[in-house]
Amino acid sequence: QVQLVEFGGGLVQAGGSLRLSCTASGIIFSLSTMCWFQQAPGKQRECVAGITGGGITNYVDSVQGRFTIYRDNAKNTVYLEMNSLKPEDTAVYYCHPMGTRYWGQGAQVTVSS
Questions:
Q1: Residue 57: its pLDDT value, please?
Q2: How far from 32 is each of 17, 43, 47, 53, 107, CA to CA, in Å?
Q3: 1 in helix, strand or coil?
Q4: What are the tens digits of pLDDT across the range 71-101?
Q5: Confidence (pLDDT) at 73
Q6: DSSP code of 28?
Q7: Triad 44, 47, 52: Cα angle to 5°
Q8: What does DSSP say about strands 77-82 and 67-72: parallel, antiparallel, or unpaired?
């Protein structure tokens, strides 16, 4: 049984920081490309940060330089460090192993201006 359990999120003022984590079980985590998806109100879910099993990362322009994705394969965990948060970062964030049908439960991030 595949499980993706997320922690983190919350309410923060603009300019603040948060860290999300996602711990996976039931998949070969070290071989999985992981992505953090962002779903803002009324918008489609979008992968904003991805990392391959070998640690190669990719970001969309809107978070480049502010968000950092990293992983600990020994702990089957992927993280998203979010700095210099903006109100437009307000969204539910989901972790997702690419190419699978599995999703984390979602973590609400709310950034106040």
A1: 98
A2: 27, 26, 15, 5, 21
A3: coil
A4: 999 999 999 999 999 999 999 999 999 999 9
A5: 97
A6: -
A7: 160
A8: antiparallel
Residue type at 10 in one-letter notation: G
In the prediction, which pLDDT does 52 show? Answer: 98
Say which residue the tokens 């972790």 belong to: 95
| DSSP class per residue in 44-112 | --EEEEEE-TT--EEE-TTTTTTEEEEEEGGGTEEEEEE-S--GGG-EEEEEEETTSS-----EEEEEE
Distance CA 43, CA 25 (A): 29
The whole-angstrom separation of Cα 103 and Cα 4 is: 6
Give the number of residues written for the chain. 113
Chain segment 34-50, per-residue pLDDT in tens: 999 999 989 999 999 99
